[in-house]
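Subject: Protein entry, chain in single-letter code together with its fold tokens

Category: Structural biology, sequence-to-fold work with a learned token vocabulary.

Notation: Tokens come from a learned vocabulary of local backbone shapes, not from coordinates.

Start of record: The labelled sequence and token lines come straight after this line.
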Amino acid sequence: MVDRFRTETIAFDTADVAAVVREMESLADRGDGLGWINIGPGLRDDQIERLPTPTVLGRWFSGRGPAVPMATWTPPREGRGSSQPIVGVEHGAGPKALDRLSDAGAPLPAGWHKVQDHAKNGIVVHPAAGASHDEVLGWLLSACWALCPIDIEDHWLAEVHRPA
């Protein structure tokens, strides 16, 4: 079977998000809503070792998502309602994560619309009309940082999935 998407990983930090923003622009400019970008902290081996190791049964019955948060950005699809992307954060912080983010200084920006805030399935939101890619990426990084159960550095990985 032919892979329908090409994947590229971009390492970056908050001082230089230009490469990721360019990919967001490129996918959005297509107008077809295809592709996505997953973003998460780039962890060192010693950080990975500090993460709780879930059991098979724990993963199956747990009411929480993964310990390390992962953000996802999907481009808008022209002609389908909103011209804004859909963004989400999968996390293991439990219920009412948006309240936790607000307490941590990373509230949902004004004009953004909550679609879901679920303990296991994560947060899904629609950014406000006119929100820039920089603003959306900044909020996603802040959310991941605030919901991560271990201390992390400003080192991120973006996995870009482009239609082939």
Helices lie at 18-30, 45-50, 56-61, 97-103, 133-147. The chain has a mean pLDDT of 87. Residues 5-163 form one domain. DSSP finds five helices and seven strands in the chain.
